[in-house]
Amino acid sequence: MPTIKDIAQQAGVSPATVSRVLNNDATLAVGEETRTRVFAIAEQLGYKPARLKKLKREEQLSRKQIGLLMWSSLEDERDDPYFASIRRGIEHRCDELGLTISKVLRGSGGAELGTVNELDGLIVVGSIASEDVAQLYSRTDRTVFVNNADQPASCDCVSLHFEGGVRDAIAHLLEQGHKRIAYIGGDETVHRLVPGLTPIETIDPRRSVFRREMTERGLYHSEYDIASYWAPAGGYQGMLRLLEAGERPTAVLMGSDPMAAGALRALQENGVNVPEEMAIIGFDDIEISAYLHPPLTTVRAHTELMGRTAAQLLLERIEGREAAMHVKVNTKLIVRESSGANLSHSKSN
């Protein structure tokens, strides 16, 4: 049976160096040529083939350079932790897999075309036109889109199961006896990386599902369908507009938790009691939601899992999977006081 000494003799290095190379010792200062030679000789001699195969895979993955392209700015992430949580999931899973995120681009800052083709893979977070991304990075088979309204069939995509989340929220409000149910949320913008091209505006999936579900029940009213922007101030202003309606709704589904926080402020300032006079449901379940007054019923978005899934899909593509996969991550309804439910419970779609 071959030993470390046998490998060391053929490789022209010390047994200690062989041991550290085979164990992927990151502190070892040894050239790539020597490292590759040690692995090749060990494999040739049949030194612990099962373990060696695992070590060789880890060593190969450690060389892979991954890019992360996000539309949101750092300021956006501070205001709304949705995309920050996706990014953390990507970073944590890449760290576990031994993949290195060597470049982070912010599309909102004006990404330069032709700067990332040397990468082994690219994860795109946020709605950015896929044709623009293809100009930035030509390996569509190694591009993974996360939370992108533009989902090309040739690329892996990870998205949230918005449909189930909205259905669960509406069903919960109907169970509480509500018929006049409103929606306040932003809309979706597919951003462009190419200077001078106009962003593509489209209806956010939460709004689309709300309209369909309420219309099917004969309960949809256009005056209860409020478009605002994705921020607490957007929820605040949207709620003020809703309060001007002739017959106020008794419940409101908000497009995000930060918007719900703004809406609660507007209701408090106008003397509308929550949930007695108006029930509120948010979307995301960010940390502050449980500490609002009253605590916010919300649809939990497993954003960190979305990020982890994207990194896993990219690894599979790097290792040879040919067919593209589109994955939807489920949501979970977290019931608290703002929706008026007597029982505290959770429901997964």
From TrEMBL:
Keywords: DNA-binding, Transcription, Transcription regulation. InterPro entries: HTH_LacI, LacI/GalR-like_sensor, Lambda_DNA-bd_dom_sf, Peripla_BP_I. PROSITE patterns: HTH_LACI_1 (PS00356), HTH_LACI_2 (PS50932). Pfam families: LacI, Peripla_BP_3. The keyword tRNA processing does not apply. One of its GO terms (molecular function) is DNA-binding transcription factor activity. SUPFAM superfamilies: lambda repressor-like DNA-binding domains (SSF47413), Periplasmic binding protein-like I (SSF53822). This is LacI family DNA-binding transcriptional regulator. It comes from Paenibacillus soyae.
